Amino acid sequence: MDRDLRRISVRIVQGLIFIYAGFNILMLIYTIYNSMRDRKEFLSETFAFTTRLSFGNYVDLIVKDGYFRFVFNSLLILGGAILLAIILSSTVAYALGHYNFKGKKFWQTYFLVGLMFPIQLGIVPVFLLMKRLNLIDSYLSVILICGASISMSVFLLTNFFAHLPEEIYEAAILDGAGEFRTFVQIMFPLASPVVFSMSILTAVNIWNQFFVPLIFLQSDAKKTLPLLVMKYTRKLLMTIDSAFAVSILTIVPIIIIFTIFSRRILDGIAEGGVKG
Predict the structure, then answer these.
(1) N or C: which end of the chain has fewer CB within 10 A?
(2) CATH 1.10.3720.10 fits domain 58-273
(3) Is residue 228 within 8 Å of residue 67, measured between CB atoms?
């Protein structure tokens, strides 16, 4: 009876997931379709079918609005923030997972609590700090803030390092490796599946980050893709065709990355969350 009930529950969950996935795929197709329609036609015949499709909205975004400049800004911030997040999260997690020291429980709780509080709650002191450091309207301010958001990465990596066999560490010490060399050449490569998964998930959050660039990047030359999207959603009825197009150009890279690396992402999260 319990097995039948479990099987039914699994089928229900799978059905709901397929429905949700199907809905999102339909919405993506609908957005792509409308991004190639004329604005007046969309507003007058929203759900009508037409064959008069063009890439004019995409051409305008690329040529007139300098789309690739926004892409460059997003990629620059993404690369710097991911590198910083990997260095911080892996070293912090290794210390919390491998060593025993006074205050360890406090720091583990500190990073767990960090999962519950968004950056918006502390934006005022962070802004004042960046102003004192003369980093307002600088890529570095966004890189530092986004790269320091490592609570989830620390949580999973700490669990991974805590469950690594002690024999691996002892063998490295016997071979003459110091602490730094042991971490860089042995421990970190072992954690690479978890690091890779968390890097992809962190990259998605940074790529879609709107609030932090809005506050700290004030000049148009340094703004990122989400801020370009905002430009066309302020007066949506006047620019809805371009809003559809820029939305597609923003989300498609993320969809491609998730499609290619979905299996590795799931495997890495499983390794970090279940066992080492």
Answers:
(1) N
(2) yes
(3) yes
What is the rounded distance in angstroms from the CA atom of residue 253 to the CA atom of residue 70? 14
Q: Which two tokens stand for residue 93?
A: 């997690």
C-beta separation of 130 from 141 below 8 A = yes
* Structural element, H or E, at residue 31: helix 2-35
Distance CA 105, CA 253 (A): 39
DSSP class of 36: T
Are the C-beta atoms of residues 146 and 81 closer than 8 Å to each other?
A: yes
Cβ pair 25, 235 in contact under 8 A: no
**Pair 99, 179: CB distance under 8 Å:** no
Give CA–CA dist 10/1, Å, rounded.
Answer: 14
Given this model, what pLDDT does residue 194 score?
Answer: 85
Q: In the chain, at which residue ranges do the beta strands (DSSP E only) sit?
A: none
**pLDDT at residue 37, rounded to an integer:** 86
What 3-state class would DSSP assign to 235? Answer: coil
- Domains of the chain by residue range: 58-273
Contact (Cβ atoms closer than 8 angstroms) between residue 201 and residue 265 = yes
> Which position has the higher pLDDT, 47 or 162?
162
Q: Look at residue 167 and give its three-state secondary structure.
A: helix
Spatial contact of 206 and 82, defined as CB atoms under 8 Å apart:
yes
DSSP states of 131-199 as a string?
HHTT-TT-HHHHHHHHHT--HHHHHHHHHHHHTS-HHHHHHHHHTT--HHHHIIIIIHHHTHHHHHHHH
Distance separating alpha carbons of residues 154 and 112, to the nearest angstrom: 9
Q: How far is CA 70 from CA 23, 113, 238, in A?
A: 29, 33, 22
| 257 Rama sector, left if φ>0, alpha if ψ -120 to 50, beta otherwise | alpha
* CA 204 – CA 214 distance, rounded (Å): 17
What is residue 164's three-state secondary structure?
coil
Return the percentage of the chain with pLDDT > 70, whole number.
95
